[in-house]
Amino acid sequence: MSQLQAILDYQEADRELYAIERELSSSEERKKYVTLKKFWDSAPEKLDAMEAKAAAFKAEAEALIKRYEQVEATISDFENFEELVSDGADISFYRKKAQSVSEQLKKVKAEINALTANIKAADEEYQKLKKQVISAKKQLVAAKEAYEAVKASKADKKAEIEKKLQAFVGKIDEAAMAKYQAKRKEKVFPVFVELYGNRCSACSMDLPLVACSKLEGGNVIECDHCHRFIYKK
Ligand SMILES: [Zn+2]
């Protein structure tokens, strides 16, 4: 048996296995499992980000307390106000100072309000994530079981085909097999396609005559368009 024929026979046997793999990978069970798993795996990172946010809020609150204390300290300047006035102090100076204190307090208050709103939003986000994580954990277990069940339902058929494929070991050149498997891994299937007229029978791309002539004697060429191997019988 020629090398080409051997690999074509292998491909024919492999066709069903490929179809099963495609069916499994596109199954709703797998999609659901993968989505939940992705969410589950990303949860620690999201929780870390929230923790960092909480730490930033804490620092912001501490800075605000400090600013409030500074403003409070300037208010003590007014304690002996009556005495200062009777000693002939400039009232307009203290009026200006009182205005400035009032403005600073307004600013601090606005920042406290903004911070409170941010903390509230972050807390809501955290509560939501917490609920999602709890629910995802339950769903993930069920989704995994469902996906495993679908896989198990195909296991016998897969094993049967794999046994058939095993029988080709030694009949096909290793380098050719490696090329085949690499294409298959890229989800290029079938890997080997026949020349049709002077076209690739998979994607219908026209082949230059010089390329077609290379196919004589069991040689193959790679299609520039769909990257399958083209052969001529
Ligand atoms: Zn092609």
What's the short version?
This protein is mainly alpha-helical. 73% of the residues lie in helices and 5% in strands.
Largest sheet: 4 strands, mixed
Over the alpha carbons, how many angstroms does the gyration radius reach? 37 Å
In total, the number of domains comes to 1
Beta-strand portion reads: 5-15%
N- and C-termini, Cα separation: 13 Å
Strand order of the largest sheet: 2-1-4-3
> What is the helical fraction, as a range of percent?
over 70%
What do we call the CATH topology? Helix Hairpins
SSE topology string: HHHHHEEHEE
Named at the architecture level, the CATH assignment is Orthogonal Bundle
Structural class: mainly alpha
Q: How many beta strands in the DSSP annotation? A: 4
Pick out the low-confidence regions. Answer: none
**Integer average pLDDT:** 93
Each distinct ligand: zinc ion
- Specify the number of helices: 6
Morphology: elongated
Task: Give the tags.
four-stranded mixed sheet; single chain; binds zinc ion
Q: If you had to describe this structure to a student in words, what would you say it looks like?
A:
It is a single chain. It contains 6 helices and 4 strands; from the N terminus they run αααααββαββ. The chain is mainly α. The chain has one domain (3-190): Orthogonal Bundle (Helix Hairpins). A 4-stranded mixed β-sheet has the order 2-1-4-3. The mean pLDDT is 93. The site of zinc ion has 8 residues, from loops.
